[in-house]
């Protein structure tokens, strides 16, 4: 019985090895701006003003020209509902959107923003106030 359990666990691990993982980039303070890359393209993301729940904030992403830019917000291990925004291009390489985070009833503030640029993604952890 134990051998079957270990074999099952090994199969799960091996099945996960072939999948692409989404890169995670550091962003100590999204309001101060963060620089990272997506598929070798330099990207700068910045939130204007304090980031808190139920109070919209402006998000700007600057990068090389792209066809589409979306961001999706969640918490690690917690489903937060549909928090996906399609950013609007204000000028070539500059994407903007007004974002509003939902309230976490547990009072957590550890968010992650999934940035998707033409199907290429990075995960940006950050904290709200």
Question: What does this protein look like?
Answer:
This is YtkA-like domain-containing protein. It is a single chain. With 129 residues, the protein is mostly beta strands. It has a single domain (30-127), classed as Immunoglobulin-like (Sandwich), CATH 2.60.40. 12% of the residues lie in helices and 43% in strands. It is built from one helix and nine strands. It has one helix at 2-17, and strands at residues 34-38, 41-48, 57-63, 69-75, 84-86, 88-91, 94-99, 110-117, 120-127. A five-stranded antiparallel sheet has the order 1-2-3-7-6, with no helix packed on it. A four-stranded antiparallel sheet has the order 5-4-8-9, with no helix packed on it. Strand 2 (41-48) and strand 3 (57-63) form a beta hairpin. The radius of gyration is 17 Å and the shape is globular. The model is unreliable at 6-18 (pLDDT under 50).
Strand-pairing-aware structural class: mainly beta
CATH fold-level label:
Immunoglobulin-like
Spell the H/E element sequence: HEEEEEEEEE
Report the biggest beta sheet as strand number plus sense, adding barrel if it closes.
5 strands, antiparallel
Describe the strand arrangement of the main beta sheet, using strand numbers: 1-2-3-7-6
Overall geometric form: globular
CATH superfamily: Macroglobulin (MG2) domain
Rg from alpha-carbon coordinates: 17 Å
Poorly predicted tracts of residues = 6-18
Strand content: 35-45%
Fraction in helix: 10-25%
How confident is the prediction overall: mean pLDDT? 85
Euclidean distance between termini CA atoms: 49 Å
Number of strands: 9
Tally of distinct domains: 1
